[in-house]
UniProtKB/TrEMBL annotation:
Top-rank taxon: Bacteria
Alphabetical list of InterPro entries matching this protein: Glyco_trans_8, Glyco_transf_8N, Glycosyltrans_8_dom-fam, Nucleotide-diphossugar_trans
UniProt xrefs under SUPFAM superfamilies: Nucleotide-diphospho-sugar transferases
Signal peptide per UniProt: none
Organism: Azotobacter beijerinckii
Any one GO molecular function term: metal ion binding
Pathway(s) annotated for this protein in UniProt: Bacterial outer membrane biogenesis; LPS core biosynthesis
Organism classification: Bacteria, Pseudomonadati, Pseudomonadota, Gammaproteobacteria, Pseudomonadales
Record-stated family: Belongs to the glycosyltransferase 8 family.
Name of the protein: UDP-D-galactose:(Glucosyl)LPS alpha-1,3-D-galactosyltransferase
Keywords of the record: Glycosyltransferase, Lipopolysaccharide biosynthesis, Magnesium, Metal-binding, Transferase
Cofactor dependency: Mg(2+)
Domain (Glycosyl transferase family 8 C-terminal) ranges: 264-322
C-alpha cells in the first residue's frame, strides 16, 4: 500500500490497532471518516498482527476508491520496539495493549500528531478542526470518560488520586511529547504491576501516567454511546448532539449485529454499503462466547418488551449455545 506522507500540518494521520475480527468494522469507520470529510487530506495507519488476504484486498480497494493512503503496520515488525520498551517479565501483557502503546514510536518521523481511534466508532461530522487544535506541551488531547467519577473512585480505593479520568478510545497524540516523557514505557510498567492489579489495564494505566498531562476536549470528539442501556429502555433511535464528530459504541453491544434493533445498525449499514465490505454478513466473526452473551441479552430484552415469540426464539438460541458450551 501507499507510503505515508511526511510531517505535513495539513494532513491528519489516523491510527487503529485491531485484530482480524475488527478489520470489517474498522473499514466502515474509515469509510465514515472520508465520507464526512471529502476535502480533508487523510492518511490511515492500521496496526495488526495478522490479516487475511481478503481483508488486505478490501483495504487496498478502499485506498484506491477514496484516494487516501492506508498503511498496514504488521505488529511483528515492531518486535524490536517492544523488546526495547519492556522486560521479558511483562510478556503476558496483551497485544491490544501493546498495539496502542507502540503507535507513537512507530510513527515517529512520519508525523508529530496522530489520532488514535478504537474500531467501534463511526464518524458523523467534520474533523478538520483537529489540524488547528493546540495541544500545547501535553502528551495528548483526550475526552472525559462517561463514567469518570466511578472510575476515579475505584482507583482512589487503590490509593491513586486522579484529577479526572478519560476514555482511551480516542486519543489525539502529541508524539514528540509522548515519547519524551516515556508514556508507553511507564504505562506498560503500571499494567504489569501486580500490586495495582488494574481492572481496565491500559486505560487505567494511561490515566495514571498521564494525570495532569493531557488536555480535555469536548465530548463531541468521543461521544460515548451505550446501546445496552438504551435497548433496555426501549430507546431505538439515534440521539446524539448535532455537532458530534465521533460516536463511540461503548460496551458489549455493537451496531454491526444483524439482530440489533437500534437505529445504529442502519447508520453502520449506510457506510458499509459504501465500502468494500458491502453485503458482508454483519454476524460474521461472531465468537461462541459473544453469541452466548448476546442471545441471553436478547431473549431477556424481548420478554421485557412483551415480544413473546421473538423472545422464545432467542431463548432457544441461548439454550442451544449454553448446551453446546457444557
Amino acid at each position: 500500500m501507499s507510503g505515508a506522507v511526511g510531517k505535513d500540518r495539513d494532513t491528519l494521520h489516523i491510527a487503529f490497532g485491531v485484530d482480524e475480527n475488527y478489520v470489517h468494522p474498522m473499514g466502515v469507520t474509515i469509510t465514515s471518516i472520508v465520507e464526512n470529510n471529502p476535502g480533508l487530506d487523510l492518511v490511515f495507519h492500521v496496526f495488526i498482527a495478522e490479516i487475511s488476504q481478503a481483508n488486505r484486498e478490501r483495504l487496498e480497494q478502499l485506498e484506491i476508491h477514496f484516494r487516501r493512503p492506508i498503511d498496514i503496520h504488521p505488529i511483528e515488525d515492531l518486535a524490536e520496539i517492544r523488546e526495547q520498551n519492556v522486560s521479558k517479565s511483562h510478556a503476558y501483557i496483551s497485544k491490544a495493549a501493546y498495539t496502542r502503546l507502540l503507535i507513537p514510536e512507530a510513527l515517529q518521523g512520519v508525523t508529530d500528531r496522530v489520532l488514535y481511534l478504537d474500531a467501534d466508532i463511526l464518524c458523523v461530522g467534520n474533523v478538520a478542526r483537529l489540524l488547528e487544535m493546540d495541544v500545547g506541551d501535553t502528551a495528548a488531547a483526550v475526552i472525559r470518560d462517561i463514567n469518570a467519577p466511578a472510575m476515579c473512585s475505584r482507583l482512589a480505593e487503590k490509593g491513586l488520586s486522579l484529577g479526572d479520568y478519560f476514555n482511551s478510545g480516542v486519543l489525539y497524540i502529541n508524539i514528540p511529547r509522548w515519547i519524551a516523557t516515556g508514556v508507553s514505557e511507564r504505562t506498560l510498567e503500571k499494567i504489569a504491576d501486580p500490586v495495582l492489579n488494574l481492572g481496565y489495564f491500559d486505560q487505567d494505566a494511561l490515566n495514571i501516567v498521564l494525570d495532569g498531562s493531557v488536555r480535555f476536549i469536548d465530548r463531541t470528539w468521543n461521544y460515548q454511546y451505550g446501546l445496552t442501556g438504551r435497548l433496555k429502555k426501549v430507546k431505538d433511535a439515534m440521539d446524539v448532539p448535532s455537532n458530534t464528530k465521533f460516536v463511540h459504541f461503548i460496551g458489549p453491544m455493537k451496531p454491526w449485529r444483524t439482530w440489533n434493533p437500534h437505529e445504529s445498525k442502519s447508520l453502520f449499514l449506510k457506510y458499509q454499503k459504501r465500502s468494500p465490505w458491502a453485503g458482508i454478513n454483519l454476524d460474521d466473526g461472531f465468537t461462541p462466547r459473544e453469541f452466548y452473551v448476546y442471545s441471553k441479552f436478547m431473549y431477556r430484552l424481548m420478554f421485557r418488551q412483551r415480544r413473546w415469540l421473538q423472545g422464545l426464539v432467542w431463548y432457544g438460541k441461548f439454550l442451544r449455545r449454553k448446551y453446546l458450551a457444557e
